[in-house]
Amino acid sequence: MTSRAGTPLVARAGFPLVVAAPSGTGKTTVCRALVARDPQLVFSVSHTTRRQRPGEQDGRDYHFVPETEFRRMKDAGAFLEWAVYNDHLYGTSFAAIDAALADGRDVVLEIEVQGARQVRERRADARLVFLLPPSWQALEARLRGRGTDGDEEITRRLRVAEGELAAACDFDYAVVNDEVESCVRELAGIVAAERRGDVASLRARFAPGPALERISVPRIARAGGRG
Ligand code: 5GP
């Protein structure tokens, strides 16, 4: 049924759009820019037990909670997914996404890969996008360029990134973040195609396997991995 203006009277439900990436891939910047330009997209505000950083706002960037409160919520079944990352707990509550989805808006979940896997298992309607660095060397250079971590910490982060990149094979799309503007445009194109239900060409263009091969991750390449 349609209105006189030709728009559907029965609104579609929104879908969760999971965006994951190794640290140093610029995921937060890209997600914020994507949401800022599309009123039908909402950012899911996670709960975390990590400390608030300067410039972050409670309720906007995260709900910052003590571990006892996080565990109480987890035991009460309040989370769609949750994970331990860098010794801290992170989770997406149903409350963070359900109202917007029911209202026909799509919700961006900027989360790490363990959480992304849980969403994949629990929400058949979720779309999963993995952001890739342009190359392994670029990722290494970005992590080193921050100048905040010593060699040992950088090696540890690179090892974590290897594992995260291996998970990209299970995602619907892999998009390279070479330049923020073009990456956001490509993501907006994916969202538009998913809304139309016309996804075959973009799923082929952004297939994770070939994209992973192109950036040649050292250990995955050595193991002759699935990429
Ligand atoms: P940060 O502490 O730097 O803000 O985030 C650390 C990692 O936790 C990032 O990879 C971020 O995407 C992820 N993260 C943020 N919120 C959630 C969440 O609700 N669930 C999961 N699984 N990961 C999250």
Helix content: 40-55%
Tell me the CATH superfamily of the largest domain.
P-loop containing nucleotide triphosphate hydrolases
Biggest pleated-sheet summary: 5 strands, parallel
| Strand segment count | 9
Element string (H = helix, E = strand): EHEEEHEEHEHEHHEHHHH
CATH topology of the largest domain: Rossmann fold
Euclidean distance between termini CA atoms: 44 Å
Query: Structural class, please?
Result: alpha/beta
CATH class descriptor of the largest domain? Alpha Beta
Question: What count of helical segments does DSSP give?
Answer: 10
Q: Which ligands occur here?
A: guanosine-5'-monophosphate
Name the beta content range.
15-25%
Write down the Rg. 18 Å
Mean pLDDT: 90
Notes on the structure:
It is a single chain. The chain is α/β, with parallel strands linked by helices and 227 residues long. The protein has 2 domains: 148 residues, Rossmann fold (3-Layer(aba) Sandwich), CATH 3.40.50.300; 52 residues, Guanylate Kinase phosphate binding domain (2-Layer Sandwich), CATH 3.30.63. A 5-stranded parallel sheet has the order 2-7-1-8-9, with helices on both faces. A 4-stranded mixed sheet has the order 4-3-6-5. The longest helix is centred in the C-terminal third of the chain and has 17 residues. The C terminus is likely disordered. Guanosine-5'-monophosphate (5GP) binds next to strand 5, strand 6 and helix 4.
